[in-house]
């Protein structure tokens, strides 16, 4: 159906372009209005040509109405992955992205050296695993390598235990190091 719709809209666009071109040519006096009148007279000359012209006009009007009131998305609709679907003999369970993000934030909040968190979870629905990207601001006294290793292990462990979903990667980017406040 998408191909037929695209072809029809392309034809419609070409016809409108031709009408606009003819209109401009008439306005600039590059062609006479009488020529256009002769073409219209020819379209009315026999019932067959009149009926064909009428059908074409109706199809173009329907396409115009479709374009105005039911615009097609130019981008392909991508199936939005809202979560990971787990199934067993008792039923289905949908674990949302927000749930996984909240689990990650809960784990990170247990680490006092992390001052600010920005978490993004990407789902791979085909293999039911997740990739987690973290942007962190940490305290100045933090040992970054140790913190990142502990975070990665703890996040993988908590998500696997809680949801039975595998974490493929935990990517950590340290955005900044918070300056230590001086005592007065």
Q: What can you tell me about this protein's structure?
A:
It is a single chain. With 184 residues, the protein is α+β, with helices and mostly antiparallel strands. The chain has two domains: 2-69, no CATH class; 83-178, Cation efflux protein, cytoplasmic domain (Alpha-Beta Plaits), CATH 3.30.70.1350. 50% of the residues lie in helices and 26% in strands. It has five helices and five strands; from the N terminus they run H-H-H-E-E-H-E-E-H-E. The longest helix has 26 residues, at 2-27. The N and C termini lie far apart (72 Å).
Question: Element order, helices and strands?
Answer: HHHEEHEEHE
**CATH class term of the largest domain:** Alpha Beta
Strand order of the largest sheet: 3-4-5
Whole-number tally of structural domains: 2
For the largest beta-sheet, the strand count, sense and barrel status come to: 3 strands, mixed
pLDDT averaged over residues: 83
So, the CATH homologous superfamily of the largest domain? Cation efflux protein, cytoplasmic domain
Radius of gyration: 32 Å
The helical percent reads: 40-55%
Give the total of beta strands. Answer: 5
Label the structural class.
alpha+beta
Q: Tell me the fraction of residues in β-strands, as a range.
A: 25-35%
Termini separation: 72 Å
CATH topology title of the largest domain:
Alpha-Beta Plaits
Low-confidence stretches: 74-80
Shape: elongated
How large is the count of helical segments? 5
CATH architecture of the largest domain: 2-Layer Sandwich
